[in-house]
Amino acid sequence: MTLVQNELSEPYVIYTYRYFLHQWPELSFLAYPAGSSDPIGVIVCKQSMHKHVSNRGYIAMLSVNKNWRKRGVASSLVRHSIEVMKQRNVVEVVLETEYDNAAALSLYESLGFIREKRLHRFYLNGKDAFRLVLSVPPSSGQGLNQETSLKQNYLRRLSYSSSVDDDD
């Protein structure tokens, strides 16, 4: 929780984390450096029906420790989350980010997200946001079965070496 509190612009209460982790534990991931138990990145997502028509994924939070940025951690977390949501048959993934967060916009746009709309005074700090959307092509597989999903851990581990990667 410290990682998210220190790195995100919005203040979240423990109930927000619990909401996502209890409802969609299979869509939350932590990244750890090889051989360490201290997380360096986190992504928290959800999946639900949008307007009772489309199966939509949502990236609620993405945070990477400042010392680990520009090493591919964020893009790996996002790609992994999208792949899991794709296996669960989402048709799109959406998120919001501050309109002036150039690093986040660059990351998401490099992964295929497009700006859908600008949301006026979306954040508590009064800043506008862009809603970004990624259209997800159908998966060739049948998706994860429910039993497999329920047996998965609440938080998954993605390992990273300390080598520098300028992807994000």
CATH hierarchy: architecture of the domain at 2-90 and 139-160: 3-Layer(aba) Sandwich
* Whole-angstrom Rg: 16 Å
Strand adjacency order, main sheet: 5-6-4-3-2-1-7
User: Approximately how much beta-strand content do the residues carry?
Assistant: 25-35%
**Low-confidence region ranges:** 142-155, 161-168
Shape: globular
Order of H and E elements: HHEEEHEHEEHE
InterPro entries: Acyl_CoA_acyltransferase (IPR016181), GNAT_dom (IPR000182), NAA30-like (IPR044542)
Domain N-acetyltransferase: 1-137
Organism: Serpula lacrymans var. lacrymans (strain S7.9)
GO molecular function, one term: protein-N-terminal amino-acid acetyltransferase activity
Structure description:
This protein is α/β, with parallel strands linked by helices and 168 residues long. It has a domain at 2-90 and 139-160: Gcn5-related N-acetyltransferase (GNAT) (Aminopeptidase, 3-Layer(aba) Sandwich), CATH 3.40.630. The protein is 27% helix and 31% strand. The chain has helices at 2-7, 14-23, 73-87, 102-110, 146-151, and strands spanning 28-33, 41-50, 54-64, 92-98, 114-119, 129-135, 156-160. Strands 5-6-4-3-2-1-7 form a 7-stranded mixed beta sheet, sandwiched between helices. A hairpin with a 3-residue loop joins strand 2 and strand 3. It starts with a helix and ends in an 8-residue tail after the last strand.
